[in-house]
Amino acid sequence: MDEHARSGPRPSAAEFLRANHDMLLTEWQQAVMRDLGGNDAARPPWLIDHMPELLTALADAMELGPEALDERLESAHAAARLDAGFNLGEVAQEYALLRRCILHRLEALEQRLRPGDLTRLEETLDRVVTRTMTFFWAMKQRILQTLDRMSEATLDDPDMETLLERLLTRLMESALTVDTAAVMLLEDDALVVRAAVGLSTDEVKGLRVPVGQGVSGRSALERRPFFVRSAATDPRVLFGPLRRAGLRALYGLPLMDGERLLGMAYMGSRTAFAFSDSEVLLFHAVAERASAHIAQTELHAREHEARQEAERSLALLDSLLEAAPVGIAFLDPELRYLRINSTLARLNNKPVEDHRGRTLHEMVRIGAVAPIERALRRVLETGRPVQDVLLEGPDPVRGRAGVWRADYFPVRTPDGALLGVGCTVVDITDLKRAETALQQAIDFREELIAVLGHDLRNPLHAVNASAFMLGKVPALDTPARRSVDRIRKATARMTRMINDILDFARSRLGGGIPVTRQHVNMEELCQGMLEELQVVYPERPLVLEVHGDDLWGDWDPDRVTQVLGNLVVNALQHAMNDSPVVTTLTGESVDVVMQVRNKGDPIPPELLPHLFDPFKQSSVPNAGNKHRSLGLGLYIVSEIVQVHRGSVRVETAAGDGTTFTVRWPRVPPPLGYLKP
Predict the structure, then answer these.
(1) I want to staple 666 with a disulfide (CB 3.0 to 4.6 A). Which of 38, 534, 553, 558 is the partner?
(2) DSSP character at residue 636
(3) Are the C-beta atoms of residues 328 and 424 closer than 8 Å to each other?
């Protein structure tokens, strides 16, 4: 300023503050940012809401006197700083920076205030600072005392609802204008009153407010506090008991655990239309403590539930391990035992408790550890199971040699992380011994059958030849000729039985039924076989029906006649007396179809699934049945047809008799061929 301006009339302190209001506010913000901003980057370094009013109030006080200062402005300023986490020194430094900004502004403008104004401004600022800091300290002490009393309420570890009611009671004891308070917890999509003290306590407990409805539901949705000046008349208050109680001020705020909504808390007054800053600040402190306890209680509940579930799972696992008839164990990636049941522990000849934390080498005998370790390492390296590992060695439980089958598999967490490896061990010693004994019995039986079949065939040939020569003698009378016919029938039947036995032995001993294919006519083969059978069964009509001209194909003629003979003899044994057995041949493009049909009782349904199995009968055994057989005829039929790559099936029904249908491919299809 020039000399004239400096020698001009001096402004009053009020005029200076009003003229430089915005500049002082800007400089003060910059100073606070510089001096206080580095203490806590997450917290705003100043609260600008009250400072403009404070500068205006200082200007008014310089004109009207100290009585113009409104204590509510100072208390609001202190409450805001306390709620933001400022300490007493930071509040004092804010005012010191404001004083410094005023003096620096006067120096920059080279202005002098009216005589005495600077002193009065200093005194007014001192009064504001003193009252603000006194209020700040008193309010902080009050909050600390209330929090101490809240801490006492948690010493006996009460349940959550009891604890919340104690916290609300401490609030009402510290804030005299509060007549009711409650905590609403979020359950699904609604707020439910779980703790309440003061007016209408019993009436509001359990009441629900959907999130988004009413003043509290809307506040929960928007995550912000609410204030109602007249709760008794405000339609946004959905709780009837609160309206009927004649409440005036109603204040609530969300209970938060970080970004997660826990519920809502509210306090109400029947005497005040608004709560003081200290009461609101105290309520915030109570709400924060309540939120912490709610979150901690939920966390403990989840931990307790998880612990119980884990204990139940472990108990079930232990029960399963002990009840399992197989050996089971779990090992970590270093092959240390985590869990083992008594079955497997006994095989290691050590107690269960000795295994936990010990390595495989420490617990398994030297001779058996190598194959087990190889399998376990393979599971850990590949992450895939290793199955059917056979282990042999002395059995310490039974005191003899034993055989076990072991399976090894990876053990993972739900997200796929490998925790270790598990194993199951099954004692198959008795099974192996039973398999060996059974195989020996089968081998002996089949070798015996083969020997008997071969050795019986030679004397039967002699008997049959002698009977044939005897039948040529002209002097035989009728009874003698009948005796010769019975001998020939018996030897023919025994020959077929021996042939079936030999073919069965060949099929079971691994050689299979041999076939020698020739280009032959099916009609000629069947006609010849039926003529031979007609000699043996002269009293039974055997009929051959032929359809089609081309009945040629590549088959083994002996095996074809063997199949027809077995089917016709089987049909004769189960047909009604004197009823014909009809054989039908049909020439098709690919196959020649052979059908053998008789009239008689149908085959029982329970026998059909196993009709072509060896040693099975085609009828229910009967002690009076004179046509009993070994039950190999149909089995041999099935085997011969399969060797020729054909098929055989049976149809049976009451009144229609039984029909066996065999399809003979003219040229054998390649291996693996399936009919369309």
Answers:
(1) 553
(2) H
(3) yes
Q: What is the mean pLDDT of residues 323-348?
A: 89
Q: Which residues pair with 392 in a beta bridge?
A: 403
**Alpha-carbon torsion, ordered 116, 119, 122, 124, to 10 deg:** -60
Q: Report d(CA 612, CA 563) in Å as an integer.
A: 13
* Mean pLDDT computed over 275-288: 83
Structure tokens of 391? Answer: 């282990």
Inter-residue contact 636 to 562 (CB < 8 Å): yes
Residue 209 has pLDDT above 70, yes or no: yes
Q: Please state the length of the chain.
A: 676
Greatest pairwise CA separation for the chain in angstroms: 180
Residue 25, judged by CB atoms within 10 A of its CB (0-12, 13-18, 19+), counts as: middle
Strand, helix or coil for residue 253: strand
- Summarised one tens digit per residue, pLDDT across range 361-408 is 999 887 788 889 999 999 999 999 999 998 888 888 878 888 999 999
pLDDT, tens digit (0-9, with 9 covering 90-100), for 433-456: 888 888 887 777 777 766 766 677
Q: Distance of CA 664 to CAs 69, 521, 676, Å?
A: 121, 12, 16
Please state, in angstroms and rounded to a whole number, the distance separating the CA atoms of residues 511 and 77. 107
How far is 277 from 70, CA to CA, in rounded Å?
14
pTM of the model as a whole = 0.44
* pLDDT score, position 224: 93
Structure tokens at 611: 């009709």
Are 500 and 633 a contacting pair, CB within 8 Å?
yes
Tokens at 130, concatenated? 């003193």
664 close to 522: Cβ distance less than 8 angstroms:
yes
H/E stretch holding 584 reads strand 581-587
- First-to-last alpha carbon distance for the chain, in angstroms, is 114
Kindly give, in sequence order, each residue whose CB lies less than 8 Å from that of residue 81, ignoring residues fewer than 6 positions away.
47, 90, 91, 94, 136
